[in-house]
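for the recovery benchmark. tokens below, seq after
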């Protein structure tokens, strides 16, 4: 019997788990931990949420058992998942599922508390997620040999039911990256025969987000996407494969390999920023940063090497195309492309000895310079075995801190309400005037609100501003 230590479960969840298991046993059933929580226990990782599957208890009886001890919300048709409030625990019954149409949600589902553990687990995706643990009996059940696969770092699908849900291919991508797994050949073969089949973009984005926010061995995840053939559904990525680069600058190989190395570098330092919103913006920018290279890469006969001039600008459109198939979130569509377009700018500014105004303008374009530095750092570190060359990034970080624009764009010191307070009638020309003042602010012609007002008053005497005081 494999021993499992449940001390990595937080005390609150552990207490609730045991209470539910004891109550279910009293009712003649068994409450087993299942899925990712068991996998994480075997890995010795902290368990953030617990999934419990209950055998041998009818749905109404289970509702009464759980509801008598914990408030819960029920999600799903028929007997759904009981999501406990105030603790990270989900309780469910074994289910029978059958494909009823196309798409991720096209399943007929019915609860059956009298299924065997093996039959119940056959609907799960991968063997490493199909293991069970009885916390009262200290008994481990592994009908599909998931523990052996986990030890060998193999990602293997459980059964023929795997092919009914195409989203599982992208789940395989993020699991490969998160746990350093290589897909079994038979799993790759099954995935190659699957298609996205009209999956909603929000479900796709959920898996890509987990890949970027939780993945550690990003190259393995990308390899899974390539080997299963699903990279063809992301042509912006597929075009990177075989796009050659100058070996004296990129000894790691083609643009695909470079992108994988950059993602690994990003993941290695991702934990330094405890903000999923920031990490997803930066992660997407790292993934997309060289999307422009296939369109502009040529062999320069004079320099006798491959060049990719303008790939930063050329990367904007394919980045938007890629993102729009994954998300409708305006913030991402607005904030990721500038990081792609300007990922080379830190080096050119450092080499050109740019001044403070250029740094302020850069901050205004990318929203946060610290994001751009993270993207450029991953780009710099994604060229093994070359050592990092961070001098230009250190220079930019120091300048941004000194100018107080590291984590935000310079805020305009003069606003429309200030013009009204000075006696100007609201006008379509406000935008032009305020833009002139903001440009002057970025140039360092003033640094506070009083200076902004004084600068504007100087402009106000010009006929081009069409000065129209109210009094």
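predicted aa per position
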């Amino acid at each position: 019997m494999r021993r499992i230590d449940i001390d990595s479960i937080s005390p609150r969840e552990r207490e609730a788990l045991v209470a539910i298991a004891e109550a279910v046993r009293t009712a003649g059933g068994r409450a087993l931990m299942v899925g990712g929580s068991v996998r994480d226990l075997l890995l010795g990782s902290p368990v953030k949420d617990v999934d419990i599957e209950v055998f041998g208890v009818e749905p109404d009886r289970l509702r009464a058992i759980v509801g008598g001890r914990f408030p819960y919300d029920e999600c799903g048709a028929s007997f759904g998942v009981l999501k406990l409030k105030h603790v990270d625990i989900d309780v469910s019954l074994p289910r029978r599922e059958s494909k009823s149409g196309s798409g991720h949600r096209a399943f007929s589902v019915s609860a059956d508390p009298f299924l065997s553990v093996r039959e119940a687990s056959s609907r799960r995706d991968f063997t490493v997620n199909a293991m069970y643990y009885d916390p009262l009996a200290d008994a481990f059940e592994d009908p599909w040999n998931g523990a052996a696969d986990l030890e060998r770092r193999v990602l293997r699908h459980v059964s023929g039911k795997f092919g009914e849900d195409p989203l599982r291919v992208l789940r395989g991508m993020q699991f490969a990256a998160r746990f350093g797994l290589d897909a079994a050949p038979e799993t790759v073969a099954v995935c190659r025969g699957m298609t996205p089949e009209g999956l909603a973009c929000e479900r796709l984005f959920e898996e890509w987000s987990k890949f970027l926010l939780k993945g550690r061995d990003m190259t393995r995840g990308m390899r899974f996407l390539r080997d299963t053939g699903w990279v063809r559904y992301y042509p912006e990525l597929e075009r990177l494969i075989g796009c050659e680069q100058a070996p004296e600058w990129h000894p790691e190989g083609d643009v695909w390999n470079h992108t994988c190395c950059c993602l690994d570098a990003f993941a290695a330092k991702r934990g330094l920023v405890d903000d999923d919103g920031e990490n997803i913006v930066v992660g997407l920018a790292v993934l997309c940063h060289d999307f422009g290279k296939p369109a502009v890469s040529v062999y320069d006969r004079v320099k006798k090497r491959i060049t990719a001039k303008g790939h930063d600008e050329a990367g904007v459109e394919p980045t938007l195309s890629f993102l729009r198939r994954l998300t409708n979130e305006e913030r991402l569509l607005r904030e990721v492309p500038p990081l792609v377009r300007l990922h080379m700018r830190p080096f050119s500014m450092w080499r050109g000895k740019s001044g403070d105004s250029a740094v302020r303008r850069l901050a205004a374009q990318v929203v946060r310079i610290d994001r751009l530095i993270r993207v450029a750092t991953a780009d710099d570190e994604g060229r093994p075995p070359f050592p990092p060359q961070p001098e230009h990034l250190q220079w930019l970080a120091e300048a941004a801190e000194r100018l107080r624009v590291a984590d935000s764009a310079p805020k305009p010191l003069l606003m429309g309400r200030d013009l009204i307070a000075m006696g100007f009638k609201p006008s379509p020309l406000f935008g032009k005037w305020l833009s002139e003042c903001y440009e002057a602010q970025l140039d360092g012609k003033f640094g506070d609100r009083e200076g902004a007002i004084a600068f504007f008053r100087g402009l106000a005497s010009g006929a081009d501003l069409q000065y129209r005081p109210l009094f």
